[in-house]
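Lab channel / #folding
Pinned by the channel admin:
"Please post every new chain as: sequence first, then the structure tokens as a reply. Keep commentary short and put observations after the output so the thread stays searchable."

First post following the new format, from NK:
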Amino acid sequence: MPLSRRSCLGVTAAVAFAAMTGTALAQDVLKVGSYPANPPWEYKNEAGEFEGFEVDIVTEIADRMGMEAEFQGLDFRALFVATASQRVDMVISSLTITEERLESQAFTQPYVEGALGIGVKSGSDIASMDDLKGRRVGSIATSFPENWLKEREEELQLGSYSSYDTTSNMLTDLRNGRIEAAVNDVVGLRYAFTKMEGLDVAAEINTGEKFAMMMPKASDKLEQVNAIISEMKEDGTMAGLYEKWFGVAPAEGSLTVTPQPVPTSAE
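Reply from TO:
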């Protein structure tokens, strides 16, 4: 049966409304790339849902933007491709702001000052950075700890170096004796070692690295996200999340409670 002009107009309006609604819904989603095995920063729980300190930060940011955070699990190296290609709005994974990364990526203000840890088997005679000389050492591919080790290759004189795609594989090799030390974010190592017996943090190395969220270079959301992070620092939300996940309150005057501008350098 042929449609009347009024029916055609009704169908056209319905299609247009559906298209507009779909567009609105798409705009209401904040697409977030995340490395899914980096507790307590971010990880997937038994139900397959993302949890962690940075997950809570992003969820709060999305809520204040009137959006819903949608998390995608990516391996560490894929995080950089995802933002560069604008496949996601931001990525999280205790990411360090570096001069090299700032050339092709944008970062929010930092909210934690990081440090590296040297993970070893319990009873190891490794107790400091100097003890890594001649040892079999591992870290995560393309991460800040890996670059830190490579920049100090002559100084450290490692026996060998192994690059890993996942933290779990690295720590499994550490426990099984395939490597003698794992160098990674100290917070992540300490958290992991509460779940894995026989491993300890032998030493902590203060590096001055600053953790932030990474976003596409030309992101139109960067300034708004950064302003919300400042609000969260000022109203105590960030400090509350820090204490929830790390078990202690952030230090007075630390990056966790002090608003910062969008960084233009790693300093």
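NK: The first helix runs from residue 5 to 27.
TO: also worth noting, Residues 114-208 form a domain with the D-Maltodextrin-Binding Protein; domain 2 fold (CATH 3.40.190.10).
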